[in-house]
Every structure is written in structure tokens, then in C-alpha cells.
Amino acid sequence: MMKRIQKILSVILCIAVLAGALGLSACRAKKAKTYLVLGDSIGVGAGIRNPEEACYGRIIANTNGFSYFNDAVNGHTSAKLLARLDEPDVLEHVMGADIISISIGGNDFLKGNLPVLAAKGLVGNYDAVDAVVDTVRENFSAAIGKIRKVNPRAVILMQTLYNPIENVPIIGGVYAEGIARLNAVFTDYAADHPCEIEIVDVAAAFSGKSGLIAPDTIHPNGKGNLVIAKAVQEKLFRLELADTADTVVEVQPEDLLDNLLG
């Protein structure tokens, strides 16, 4: 009789332990972070042929087991990012995000402005550049305000912009000046608003590395996406939002050139 009671108690204990383990697993599952990418074609992964599987945002999500949404759009400017934050689906993703990566600002220069900016920059006149920078500053500040209004807890990772034509004589230097002024918008904002955004210095990671640019001469290629993913992951690790500074690449990003060659 005593042995039977002991066996029953053992079974009950096992069930209790199993239930506790299942409850702990469920709790951990509920705590899985949600990662959102916002911005332009860099965030989309336009420089590779398999962005949905292998852009830097997907690599970050796979590495950390994050739920993942990518609401970046090819060609978007800072004004379009600001407007996109009013779209119901995007707003829902923003509200639920734990971590948000943003890449924006490059198209503010490229969209119809680059020839004028370059021409004036060649003679040392950066008034047109500063006008674009002022617009980006206003739109970026408003965008962060919108995000913070609906989600004050998310960690916002703002990526600096690299110079895709730094090796091009003369014009590369003019573009570099514009990029430096634009990146100052983001770094100054971070300095003036502690804890509001974190800077991921993609510009530094790309400096002197023309081999990270796709054949379109604008976007990161496969290696470029890996470098951005590494920069983001290292930032997450320093912020204690990731267990490792190393990335896990489940699917290799494929270069656009590979696509052209068949």
C-alpha cells in the first residue's frame, strides 16, 4: 500500500515538474522580442536578389529568434517615412515592436537633388545641401516623435548612411560632405535626446570598402548586408538585447550580379 502511494506521489510530482517546465517555456515564448525595419531600399535589401530571406533585417531576426516585420519601402524619403507611420498596418507594427531599425535620408539627396547639389558643391556652395539636411532633420524628429507617442519602450536603432561613391573623383568628395552633414542630424539627435535612439554606425563599417556596394552603385550587396547585420548585432549585444555579437546566417544573400549571370 505504501509503495502504491509513493508511486502515485511520484507520478504527481512528475506531472507538476512537467507542467512547471511547460509553463516556463510558454512564458519564455511570450517574451520573444519583435523586430521591425523601417525606412528605404537599404532596409528592404534592394541590393540583393533574395532580400526576404537574406537581407540584414532577416539575418538579425534569425540570429536572435525575433518576430520580424519589414515595412521599409524602395525610394522612400524622410517625408514618406513620416507619412507611412500613419498607415494602420505600419502603426500596428510600431506599437508592438521591441526593437526598430531605421535607414532613411539617402533618397532625400538622390530624388532629383543630386545634380544640383553636386554642381554647387563643386564650387564650395553647400546651401542646397543644408536645405535638404534641414528637411531631413524636421521629418526625422517628427518621425521619432510619432514612434515614441505610440511606443515609448522600443529601442530605436538609427543607421548612419555610407557614401556609395566615395572612390569617384571629385563628386565622391562632394557627396561625402553631404552625407557627413546628414549623418550629423542623427548623431546630434542622439546626443540631444539621450535614450531616445541608438546609433548604428554603418558609415564607419563601410568606409573604404567599395566591395560592399551592389552593381547598381547605390545599395549594399550580399557582403554589405552581412556587414550591416554584424553592426546591428554588435549594438544589440552591447545593449544586452542579444546573447552574442555574432550573427547566424541561415541563407546567404545573393548578389544582383549573380542574377544577371544566371
Question: What do these coordinates show?
Answer:
This protein is an alpha/beta fold and 262 residues long. The chain folds into two domains: 31 residues; 229 residues, Rossmann fold, CATH 3.40.50.1110. The protein is built from 13 helices and five strands. The chain has a five-stranded parallel β-sheet with strand order 2-1-3-4-5, sandwiched between helices. Helix 4 packs across helix 12. The radius of gyration is 23 Å and the shape is globular. About 8% of the residues have low confidence.
How would the global form be characterised? globular
Give the number of DSSP strands.
5
Q: Could you name the ranges where pLDDT drops below 50 across 5 or more consecutive residues? A: 8-29
Tally of domains: 2
Order of helices and strands: HEHHHEHHEHHHEHEHHH
Helix content percent band: 55-70%
> Main beta sheet: strand number and arrangement?
5 strands, parallel
Reported CATH architecture of the largest domain: 3-Layer(aba) Sandwich
Q: Please state the CA-atom Rg, rounded to the nearest Å.
A: 23 Å
| Structural class estimated from helices and strands | alpha/beta
- Mind telling me the CATH superfamily name of the largest domain? SGNH hydrolase
Helical stretch tally: 13
CATH fold node name of the largest domain: Rossmann fold
Report the top-level CATH class of the largest domain. Answer: Alpha Beta
- The neighbouring-strand order within the major sheet is 2-1-3-4-5
Classify the beta-strand content into a percent band. Answer: 5-15%
- How many angstroms does the end-to-end distance come to? 76 Å
Oligomer: single chain
